[in-house]
Amino acid sequence: MKKIAHFIIILLLQPVCSLLVAQNDLKSLDECINMAMEENLSLKAKRLSVEKTKNLQGTAFNIGKTGLALGQDLTSGGNPDNSLTINQEFEFPSLYVTRFRLLKAETQLEKNQLVLTEQLLIKELSSLYYQLLCQKEIIKILQQQDTLYHSFLFLATAKYQAGDAGRLEQMYAERMCQENSLSLQKAHQEYQNLLLQLQSVLNSAQIVETKENYLPQLKANASNNKLSGSPILSILEQQQKVSQKRYSLQSQKFIPEFHFSLGNQLMLPNVNPYHVSRDKFTQGDFLYFEVGLKIPLFFGEQLAVTKAAKKEVEIAKIEHNITSQQLKNEQIIAFNEHLQLLKNVDYYNTTGKEQAKTIIQLSQLSYEKGEINYIEYAQNMKTAFDIYLQCANTLNQWNQNILLLNYLNQ
User: Fold this and answer.
1) N or C: which end of the chain has fewer CB within 10 A?
2) pTM to 2 decimals?
């Protein structure tokens, strides 16, 4: 009996160095972040979007096409009807400047969205990374529990064969082994699913696993709890600027446009079916020009568009205020959760783990001495390992909370 007990203790104290999942490329969190910054498809698309808006800045000075017309009146002589004319229309110069500023503001908006995409990617990647470490820890605990339960089954079978225990005790041990085996299979499957998610985020051709084999406790960073640097608010603030510039552009479209024409006398030679005198002026070819304005007398449509643009400015301001309040509430909720998790983590680090270890040791000795029956022994083992599992889950919740606070407080 003592040899069996010693065998069980040695197995429980042995570190679990490998998982059933085949390891491929091992990377630290920083290495994963660096890889994602280069390979993530969402980031690539957002960078292309920034480049696209930069290219669109060249459309600010969209001067219309130049008109070229040749006129020939075969029934007349050297008059302006026989000429080559160039026409060009221009908007008021301030419109080109305002449109350029609008496009530049839209480019900055895309850049701010790129920053937000990067921050969300880092948060998602870090969350996945620590979930993987937590899942590794859970698998280790379940493997240790599996070792203990199989030892329990071995002992129950030996006692049954020796006539010291009934079939019921052996069946109870078999059920515990089978149930724990199912839990272990589920944990491995969840680990595989997390690996696939990480592979997708990294846009990697192969599976990437965590370099660490233990679940660390992240440190809480001191923060001033201000949202002034939040990338979400930066986007909304820039959206207000874009809306304001769009409204300014629409307002300036009431300004008249310029029209300019330049003509030069031109008569086709040997084209005179009516035998009209087509002699040029004695002073040579004439040159004429025309300058005009296009005044918007009917501006109902433009007035409606301008009013709508003004409403867009007001909407952008309200959305900024709503999001700012939501972020503050999320910050408060996350911090309150942080305070509760701090108590939970302290409990498991100072008391919970020691209690679980003591429960296993005392239950093992009591069961060997016959002081407790197999049901009490099994319940005690389950309680102890539930503490270990709860400890791992609580530590993961703490890490996820720290990541959320770091994101909200940046």
Assistant:
1) N
2) 0.83
